[in-house]
Amino acid sequence: MVMVKGTKKNKQKIKNVKRKWRKDDFELTLLAAPTFIWYILFSFIPMFGIIIAFKKYETFPGRGFIYNLLHSDWVGFENFRYLFKSNTLFILLRNTIGYNLIFIILGIIVPVTLAIMISLIYSKRKSKAYQTMMFFPHFMSWVVVSYFVFAFLSMDKGVFNNILTFFGGDSIKWYMESKYWPYILIFMQLWKTVGYNMVIYLASIAGISGQLYEAAVIDGATKWQQVKYITLPSLKTIIVMMFILNVGRILNSDFGLFFQITRGIPGSLYNVASTLDTYVYMALRSSSPIGMTAAATFFQSVTGCITILLANWIVRKVDNENAII
Amino acid sequence: MRKNKKNKPDILKFNKIKKSSNVIFNIIFIIASIISIAPIIYVLMISLTSEKALARYGYHLIPREFSLDAYIFLYQEADVILKALLISIIVTCVGTIVGVILTSTMGYVLSRPNYKLKGFLSWIVFIPMIFNGGMIATYVVYTNFLGLKDTIWSLILPLAVSSFNVIICKTFFKTTIPESIIESARIDGASQLNIFIKIVLPISKPVLATISLFLSFGYWNDWFLSSLYINDSNLLSLQALLNNIQKNIEYLANNPTAGVSLQQYKNQMPKEGVRMAIAIIIALPIACIYPFFQKYFISGLTIGAVKG
């Protein structure tokens, strides 16, 4: 398209906005239709489901979801009141937010440090081998990992207790003692995600222009100064992006981690391992009234959305370059 | 270019870390690598140890008494395992195909610069990234509205599209497919569907491989959907089976060997070994396959990280 100066340019603009449907547009719409329908069914209709939190949701036999939703009674904030009354909410929120903050902080510091280290190793072949091995946990499902963990923590057969008894200590009932679990959970989360995140940061490090480092060497910068003034600033964009996305999930937790590693969260570990997600899941499985738990998920959805927009807004204020929206 | 290559070693020769630091870094990474892969080796060894030795000595890295009992038992009970394996394979294959089709078509449409609904569809893809209905609403909609409970589709459809994958696709099409090719095909009178199938897809193999990988690993590893939507034991995938036998492993045993009553057979079954053996059956294929596809993974992650 050739742009013409002056008034014609404006006409052109108007034309573009109010353009008639062309054959092209029609064909592309057909191509996009199946995925569009998927998004409506699997993403957008559940979004309207968040109003279940304000209803006493009941199922009328032989009726569909929409009928049920429209004909259930409004109860206002009744469900929320119930949720706030229960003592568990404090524990759930404390665990969810607490673990997430630790995961966000460690989940940036540890992989970034390792990525910088692995980029400095002499032998590229060794570095590839390390990456491959450290990438491995990412491909294991939490169910399989829970068996891995069980092999170490099993009461009468596990490795740790074997070692303890070998040195004359007493064996520990790992799955009954809550005091060890925060460390175990944090360690396992790192175990599963560090390799994967390291590879993401490493890809960014590989993209940094070598000339920057050359210039730095000529100016006599030490290795440490190079990391501080070149590598870390170059990684800023990706770190900020990961940070925003993770902050948006502050009330969601990696359900598998908490539920599987603890083998279904036994009562003795409830206080250290239950999060909003596991609470909702248990409630779903136990067929308690849906409205109460819907209040919890309403929180997750809305807070998640608000925190993501807020984090992005703050980032945009500080440094427009790195905002994701 | 050549000058650069020649210069680089000279200049960067002075830019290496100290020998001692290199050794320390290597040691750190060797430890990290061992921590990453030790558990699976260890579980493999447990599954190869006889039940008697496990009961007596506990779990050890070197089998005290080597035995294939657990695997022999699984072979005898092949019907259960094979059924679960079949479900896992069907879900993974069908899901990957459906997912790739849905993802790549949307990615292609969003990469067309003059498409009328581009803005609208971009929002449709983007909004789910920051807002979702939550577990309860999703569960109610899937079971009550879409009627997915106890169907194989409940394991396939929810994971088929992810906005992250759509964006990877869109970015790839935008950056690697020359506009001129598509323009000339349009002039020759090809429809968009034809262009997409005959021109775009064949030159987009790398991104399709990446998306297929993400999807297939996701499907193979999924147990959460099974635990929510599947009660029918005929639809249990391997992961779901492993998830279920944590509590009750005996229901696996139903083909007693000759001359043994069912109860005796159940008592004799190598319970510990079998659990670990199933974990190995799930984990080992992935462990063997993923190193070959790692580069696709990394390329996908880096494409996805570009704002587009």
TrEMBL record, chain A:
UniProtKB keywords: Cell membrane, Membrane, Transmembrane, Transmembrane helix, Transport
Chief place of localization: membrane
Gene3D superfamilies reported in the protein's UniProt record: MetI-like
PROSITE patterns: ABC_TM1
Pfam families per the UniProt record, alphabetical: BPD_transp_1 (PF00528)
Localization of this protein: Cell membrane
Transmembrane feature ranges: 28-54, 97-122, 134-155, 180-208, 229-251, 290-315
GO CC annotations, alphabetized: plasma membrane
Record-level GO BP terms: transmembrane transport
InterPro entries: MetI-like, MetI-like_sf, UgpAE/MalFG_permease
Superkingdom of origin: Bacteria
Membrane topology field: Multi-pass membrane protein
Domain ABC transmembrane type-1: 93-311
Similarity section: Belongs to the binding-protein-dependent transport system permease family.
Name the UniProt record assigns to this protein: Sugar ABC transporter permease
Organism listed in the record: Vallitalea longa
TrEMBL record, chain B:
Domain ABC transmembrane type-1, first and last residues per copy: 85-293
Ranges annotated as spanning the membrane: 21-45, 84-108, 120-140, 152-173, 193-220, 274-293
Subcellular location: Cell membrane
Keywords: Cell membrane, Membrane, Transmembrane, Transmembrane helix, Transport
Database matches in InterPro entries: MetI-like, MetI-like_sf
Keyword hit for Ribonucleoprotein: no
GO biological process: transmembrane transport
Protein name: ABC transporter permease
Species this chain originates from: Vallitalea longa
Lineage: Bacteria, Bacillati, Bacillota, Clostridia, Lachnospirales
